[in-house]
TrEMBL record:
It holds the Pfam family ECH_1. This is Enoyl-CoA hydratase family protein. It comes from Streptomyces lanatus. InterPro entries: ClpP/crotonase-like_dom_sf, Enoyl-CoA_hydra/iso, Enoyl-CoA_hydra_C, Enoyl-CoA_Hydratase/Isomerase. Belongs to the enoyl-CoA hydratase/isomerase family.
Amino acid sequence: MTLIGRTRARGVESLSLDSPDTRNALSAALVGELTDALKDCAKDTGVRAIVLTHTGNTFCAGADLRDPPPPEALVALLRQIVELPRPVVARVTGHVRAGGLGLLAACDIAAASHEATFAFTEVRIGVAPAVISLPILPRTDPRALARYYLTGERFTAPEAARVGLLTTHADDVDEALAPILDGLRRSAPEALAETKALLTAKVLETFDRDAADLTALSARLFSSAQAREGMTAFLERRDPEWVV
């Protein structure tokens, strides 16, 4: 069973996270398939831009707690999106949690419907938004991010746009994306690649400087006693022992 749907229209390749039964959680298998699909797009000169979207009511629920990818694999996927010589556009019509926000931030442009909600839920299961900070921290408002990182609160699409996680939001996300995709189709491919490189240089500096440390932090926290309790509580649909 494939976990990534693929369609193409006028040079725009749509890659759809297609595991609605797991709320498109980032399993080792899904990360591997998405990595391979992006490699194909990078080699295909017929692909002018990529839309990263989803099936079901959740764009991505974060890491699959039953089959999580190694932190190194998630870092590599996020960097691959940032470095890809084609613009990557996120199209979101559902909920985004934890690691899914890393995917969102790695994309060059992100649009969401007003049905979407967002939350950094890592602290509530005993870990931290470590590797996903690589694309998030250079692109977002640090004061707002402190609130949402530390509390795990949900927030809306307008708020996600205000803090820098979204480019645009609308009742009809496809209507909002239409002029953006038209602009990408009208742009010269080499010029797009060089312009993207200008825009992502600071993000890649963060990867170069911090990826190893944040990968180690993620691995340490995921193996901690608090993470085991938090993940067990999440799967059992109860509060973890530290809730007061």
